[in-house]
Design goal:
heterodimer, A: 93 residues, mainly alpha, Arc Repressor Mutant, subunit A, two-stranded antiparallel ribbon, 2 strands, globular, B: 525 residues, FAD/NAD(P)-binding domain, seven-stranded antiparallel beta sheet, 28 strands
Chain lengths: 93, 525
């Protein structure tokens, strides 16, 4: 574990994104889960946001004063689980 | 392209119950589950379930899983394991199995994907040793590996309470239970079990830091004010090598959502859930949901929802006519509403915490004197003076009635709704202790104040190993888990029917008859 990790609160552990980075991004105007994802990659790792999505939503709610209900869900699309590209080989044959 | 009449996604309690119900009506069902084993969370549940006796209450969760699997086998339901459904539209399932993708075309789909555990972020929360309560439960109950020796549990919902108890059964020490709210979230009887084991409760607290060089060595707790803000200077440090997080569940609704089902936000149900009618039908024709995916609840309600979805799917596929289906659905709905009644049911939103309502069992894990005095299961002083009798310390309206059938003399009545508190007819009860090991909440003891000139006999349920020897002198503990006196083990009843819940009879000084409720784990504190 790095020294930074000990001091910071890590929100997205797959992509190593801290609470401070997310708050900074919100201050810059990235105020949806999708926008935070595109800006910082939070939620783009192996777990696909199952761990951090709710935490990110809560920080957005805290920082912007929006209710949890107002914070839109990110887009869901296949695959919902990580899949190696090779699995799709020869599907149309 | 593979064709499937009814695809069920998820082989947990909801999915299996749905598959069984639909298959019984003649539907050809195929179940998909990403795990190597079926049963969802059921095979991790070694505790006895609540609910009604006809619906397996008092049966340990993993045995319910075994029964569901046997039924699916009998009915010829195909259960595809290691099969990850990674995409879904109105009619097609994309499945990954053995590193290959396949598409299944279906006539109807039941989504029963369950829920995932919420995370909590704090300083050091990525240290090894921090894990969800469900992960710890998988360690101990599936793999039989102890994740740590000194565990701090964060969250006092039923998951946090049950896993704390099971960690102690597995041999760990639970150094504390932390809860941000001013009251215990889960069933009081679950809290009472860990309280009797002496686990300190930290209500109105949160974890603010995990400390350790290479793994968790200690945890910092901070008191919260009324607005859930940490109070500076209130920090305390607890030694722990494992921190378990049990702070709620979120429905795994991605598949239903990508298929286009309409959603609503329902915080008391765990977040965004698909909008359904009372047939478990989503906004998409032929797509049904059941279990935690449409609102986080218990396994017992997940199974009923599964049955409902199974009947509706069979009706949709024209295996049963509207009239027959309506009858069947009405019966299942009646069961569902019965288990949703009471203090913890859907009719009573959990997020409404009023200060005047926080007392006794909810605030301490121990029923108060008032709660016990007004409890219809606690006998009168006069009856207690006459000889052995059951003392049913069940003070919360939870859906449960195995005690009623356990009594061979009909001295216990729960009746309808099954959330009613059990009533003891004290002059019919002879203190036989059949109910002591039947209560899934371990909330019943028998007390014989006439046992000896100055000794009383207290018989309580016990689920830790090793069991004490008859004749052994052990530390007798009260409801708070404090040693109050010594007691001699007079009898150890390990009845096969009680499935591991042992009745221990302890002779204790007469004045402690109404205080002693268990013994120290392992005999001495």
């Amino acid at each position: 574990m790095t020294e930074t990790n000990k001091k910071e609160v890590i929100i997205c552990r797959c992509e190593d994104v801290s609470e401070a980075e997310i708050k900074q991004a919100i201050a810059e105007g990235f105020t949806t889960i999708n926008a935070i994802k595109k800006r910082l990659r939070a939620g783009m790792g192996l777990c696909q946001g199952r761990t951090c999505q709710k935490l990110v939503a809560r920080i957005i709610a805290q920082e912007t004063g929006k209710s949890m209900e107002e914070i839109l869900l990110p887009t869901t699309r296949p695959p919902v689980r990580p899949i190696v590209m090779g699995a799709f080989e020869g599907e149309d044959k | 392209m593979n064709k499937v009449e009814l695809a069920v996604i998820g082989a947990g309690p909801a999915g299996l119950a749905a598959a069984i119900e639909a298959a019984q009506l003649g539907v050809k069902v195929v179940v998909f589950d990403e795990n190597a084993q079926p049963g969802g969370q059921l095979f991790k549940q070694i505790h006895k379930f609540f609910g009604s006796r006809e619906h397996k209450a008092g049966t340990r969760g993993f045995r319910i899983g075994q029964e569901l699997l046997a039924q699916t086998e009998q009915l010829g339901v195909k259960v595809n394991l290691g099969s990850t459904v990674f995409g879904l539209d109105k009619r097609n399932l994309w499945v990954l199995k053995d590193g290959r993708t396949e598409v299944f075309q279906t006539d109807a789909v039941i989504v029963a994907t369950g829920a995932s555990e919420n995370a909590l972020a704090f300083k050091g929360s990525t240290l090894p040793g921090v894990m969800t309560a469900g992960a710890a439960q998988t360690f101990i109950n599936l793999h039989r590996v102890l994740p740590g020796k000194k565990v701090l549990m964060v969250g006092s919902g039923n998951v946090g309470l049950i896993v704390s108890y099971q960690l102690m059964q597995a041999g760990a020490e639970v150094v504390g239970l932390v809860e941000a709210a001013p009251q215990i979230g889960g069933y009081g009887v679950h809290a009472a079990k860990i309280k009797r084991a002496g686990v300190p409760l930290f209500l109105g607290h949160t974890i603010t830091e995990a400390i350790g060089e290479h793994q968790v060595e200690s945890a910092v707790l901070t008191k919260l004010n009324g607005r859930f803000q940490p109070i500076p200077g209130s920090e305390k440090t607890l030694e722990a090598d494992t921190i378990c997080i049990a702070v709620g569940l979120t429905p795994m609704m991605e598949l239903a959502r990508m298929a286009g089902a309409e959603f609503k936000y329902a915080p008391q149900m765990g977040g965004h859930v698909p909008i359904i009618n009372d047939n478990m039908e989503t906004s998409i024709a032929g797509m049904f949901v059941a279990g935690d995916v449409c609102g986080v609840e218990e396994a017992s309600s997940a199974m009923e929802e599964g049955r409902l979805a199974g009947v509706t799917a069979a009706e949709y596929l024209e295996y049963v006519d509207g009239i027959a289906a309506a009858d069947r659905k009405a019966l299942i709905r009646e069961q569902l509403s019965a288990i949703r009644n009471g203090t913890f049911g859907k009719a009573h939103p959990r997020d409404e915490v009023k200060e005047e309502n926080i007392y006794g069992l909810k605030s301490s894990g121990t029923p108060s004197k008032d709660e016990l005095d007004s409890c219809p299961g606690v006998p009168s002083k006069e009856r207690l003076a006459k000889g052995p009798v059951a003392v049913i310390e069940c003070v919360q309206e939870i859906p449960c009635n195995p005690c009623e059938q356990a009594c061979p003399r009909g001295a216990i009545k729960v009746g309808k709704p099954i959330t009613s508190l059990p009533q003891l007819t004290e002059n019919v009860c002879n203190g036989c202790a059949s109910c002591v090991t039947a209560c899934p909440g371990l909330a019943i003891v028998t007390v014989d104040r006439t046992y000896d000139e100055n000794k009383a006999l207290v018989t309580f349920p016990y689920e830790y190993l090793p069991l004490p020897e008859t004749g052994a002198i052990v530390d007798a503990v009260n409801r708070q888990g404090e040693k109050i006196c010594s007691g001699q083990v007079v009898k150890v009843r390990n009845n096969k029917k009680a499935d591991g819940t042992v009745a221990i009879s302890l002779a204790v000084p007469e004045e402690y008859a109404m205080e002693v409720r268990s013994m120290a784990k392992g005999g001495t504190k």
